[in-house]
Structure formats: C-alpha cells, structure tokens
Design brief:
Elements lengths: L14 E9 L1 H18 L6 E6 L3 H16 L4 E5 L30 E9 L3 H11 L6 E9 L11 E5 L7 E5 L1 H4 L3 E7 H14 L1
Helix pairs in contact: 1-2
Length: 208
C-alpha cells in the first residue's frame, strides 16, 4: 500500500535518476479487469453506463474495460472519446494552440452514468478540463473517474473512484503509460522515481 502523509497525500520519495517499468502488459490487464469488476459492483444496470476515454490513451482504456464487461456480463457498454484541449487552464502559457481531436459521444448523455477514463492522474487539472468539456454535451446523472495510475501530487480537490495502481512519485518524475493501440506495447515506465524504481526492480527480480 502506498504511504501517505498526514494530510492524506502520497508521501513523496526522494528524487532519483533511475528509470524502470512499474507495470507490464499483464499487470495492466489485471488492473483493468479489476476496475471492470468494481464498476459492475457499483452499477447493477450497466446499460446506463457510458465509458468516456480522455484523449489520447484514455480511449483504448475505455474500450478495454467495455470489452471486459462484455466478457463478464454479455452487455455492450457504450464507449466514447473526449477531447478537452480547449478547456485547459494553461492555454495562455503555451506558445502554440493545442492540437484538437474530435470528441465522439452518444447523441445524448443526459441521465446516463459517465465513467471518465484517463491513464495517469497527477495534479487533477486535466480532469477539471475534461469535466468542463463533458458538461457541454449534456447533464449526466453522475460522473465517475477511473485511472490506470494515480501518482499523487493533486492541486485540485479531485479523487478517482477506480484506480489501477497507486504509485508514490516525486513531483518531478515522469510517468509514461504505453498502450499497444497507441504505442505498440503495454507498459508503465517511471523516469526518476527512486522508490518506485527500486520496488519494481525487486518485483522483477523475484519473478526471474
């Protein structure tokens, strides 16, 4: 279990320059299967769900979880994609305008339960932008958040409902999620996280 400080945030490990894989393809698969089960436990009527992936890597995550739910229950859960680029709060700080990709959502999301999918939860600012973008399409009954990795260091009061892996990190670390649909392979890599790197290295050594 990830250590937390007195204020409930992840305890920050000392910075380092190591690089390691903290999740391989099988670990990612297991995490998404578990999230799919947890979503079903919370929602008896899965037909009211819409799994919305935040571009870019949230989209294949939504599709994989929908496929898992179909395998478990035989239900085809609606999926969609959401581009939130124009709702970011750092647009004035950028030298160039963002690359806007199309959002693909059901004709109506009114009274539906939206599960928003993202690969990494960090400060919470991307989620805030995604919520603003999503509300522009209608009035859902509820919006929930599922992430593959929660790395801590929140700057906004945002908390996920479903988490694949809680990962303590230093604020300056880079957490990279690679997915086969986008990157050609499945893995989560941390650059510069001393604690996570050492822990993952021990796990891999134990499996060797």
């Amino acid at each position: 279990m990830a250590r937390t400080s007195g204020n409930g945030r992840f305890a920050e490990p000392p910075p380092a320059t190591a690089q390691t894989m903290v999740m391989d393809g099988e670990a990612i698969r297991r995490a998404l299967v578990r999230i799919a089960h947890e979503i079903l436990e919370q929602h008896a009527d899965a037909t009211q769900l819409v799994l919305v992936g935040m571009r870019t890597r949230g989209v294949p995550l939504a599709e994989r979880i929908a496929a898992a739910i179909h395998e478990f229950e035989g239900i085809d859960v609606v999926t969609g994609s959401l581009d939130f680029s124009l709702h970011r709060d750092d647009l004035s700080l950028r030298d160039a305008p963002p690359l806007v990709q199309p959002s693909e959502l059901p004709e109506s999301i009114d009274d539906r339960v939206i599960v928003l999918l993202d690969d990494v939860l960090f400060t919470g600012r991307s989620i805030r932008a995604a919520l603003d973008a999503l509300i522009g399409y209608g009035r859902p009954a509820a919006i929930e958040l599922a992430v593959l990795v929660d790395r801590g260091h929140r700057e906004l009061p945002i908390r996920p409902d479903y988490v694949g892996k809680n990962l303590p990190t230093h604020r300056d670390d880079l957490v990279e999620v690679h997915l086969a649909e986008v990157d050609g392979s499945d893995e989560v890599v941390v650059r510069g996280n001393g604690n996570a790197s050492q822990s993952a290295a021990r796990e891999q050594k134990g499996k060797a």
